[in-house]
Design a protein that fits this description.
about 375 residues; alpha+beta; 5-stranded antiparallel beta sheet; 4-stranded mixed beta sheet; elongated
């Protein structure tokens, strides 16, 4: 070997670049452990062994999104492929490559593919709502943490409906790719969801029974659980205090409700001019001009005032402005050629109701404000 050649990380047939906390990588590790593949067959190495880790050019050449897991194929393969990314792709490659060893993980049961696919499309894409900072939003189709968590919980219930009613595993008596895929995500969910709402069991009843049974009575899944939890508890929680700064976990809206909440609930009357799932607009009862409408988010979600806005609120703030513009274009409400858009903030800003609201004022020529 020449002096400028790097020493290989491993001479194994495959290298799986993964870390214990990776729930997507954990499905691969479950397959490796169940099939009892040797280190020579598949060597598990942390991507942090590469100079630059997950952000290195070397790792991104294997996984263009810079995400774990990634697999290098170091032996000659008929396909000509030298590396793979994405957990489902890697899992199915290894299941085919080592089909004669251990369980197949692919029972003759469509439940396995249904659960795995639903998990990968509707859970994996938004699971970051449980731990990612606000600047990483939106996640999938969800612009904020609250809506993403709600969708995450909903899809756990959908998956529960796909489960078999009999047997130890999701599809019955035989372990499948569905178990390997869903179990790590449920490990995350069971630990993290109570940080946002500890008033209910994080997993639906049947899923919870399946999960607890595997933790107790399946040595492979018990090992996976231990690997993930060791990092979540000791590193993410106890050392980094990850959830202290995350909205709806360490930070919550603890301000008292206002009369706007009662208007949203239709408990007190208001002249509503515009309404959808996200915003409500109604005429100000003390108008400052012939046309004066207030636009509010239906769910305050911490927006007592604009200074409390964060990246969590980008979507709703945009909706408020768009709705305000549409209202200012409505001549039937008394608006003419333009309007003034005002958000009062705090005592110095003249705010009276601590539920963010946009004033849309017009119907006459307004004087300069400065």
């Amino acid at each position: 070997m020449s002096s400028d050649e790097a020493t290989p990380l491993s001479n194994s047939d495959h290298i799986l670049f993964d870390m214990p906390v990776s729930n997507n990588g954990a499905r691969i590790r479950a397959i490796l452990y169940y099939k009892k593949l040797s280190q020579q067959q598949v060597d598990i190495i942390s991507p942090m062994k590469l100079v630059g880790g997950l952000r290195s050019d070397e790792f991104k050449a294997l996984s263009p999104q810079g995400l774990m897991p990634a697999l290098t194929i170091q032996k000659e393969h008929d396909s000509g492929m030298t590396h793979l990314s994405e957990s489902d792709t890697i899992a199915r490659y290894l299941l085919a490559e080592y089909a004669s060893v251990g369980p197949s993980f692919q029972p003759d049961n469509p439940r396995s593919n249904q659960i795995t696919r639903w998990h990968d499309v509707y859970l994996t894409t938004i699971q970051g709502c449980l731990y990612k900072p606000a600047y990483r939003f939106p996640l999938g189709n969800y612009a904020d943490r609250k809506s993403a968590i709600k969708a995450f919980e909903k899809n756990l219930k959908v998956i529960e409906g796909f489960m078999s009613d009999e047997g130890k595993y999701l599809c019955g008596d035989e372990v499948s790719l569905a178990d390997a895929s869903l179990f790590p995500t449920c490990t995350f969910a069971k630990y993290m969801l109570p940080k946002f709402d500890d008033s209910q069991t994080p997993l639906p009843p049947k899923l919870n029974a399946w999960f607890d049974n595997l933790c107790t009575n399946d040595s492979v899944f018990a090992k996976i659980y231990g690997e993930i939890m060791d990092t979540l508890v000791t590193s993410w929680d106890e050392k980094s205090h990850l959830w202290d700064s995350i909205w709806l976990s360490g930070q919550r809206d603890q301000s008292p409700g206002t009369l706007f909440d009662k208007i949203v609930a239709k408990e007190i009357p208001a002249t509503i001019v515009k309404e959808d799932r996200h915003i409500l607009a109604f005429k100000d009862i003390n108008p400052l001009a012939p046309a004066h409408v207030l636009v509010i988010p239906k769910d305050r979600n911490g927006l007592t005032n604009l200074r409390n806005a964060s990246a969590e609120h980008r979507d709703i703030l945009g909706r408020l402005l768009v709705a305000g513009g549409e209202i200012a274009n409505d001549s039937e409400l008394g608006f003419g050629d333009g309007a003034r858009f005002v958000i009062n903030d705090g005592p110095d800003g003249g705010q009276e109701v601590y539920h963010l609201h946009l004033h849309v004022i017009g119907g006459q020529k307004l004087g300069s404000m400065c």
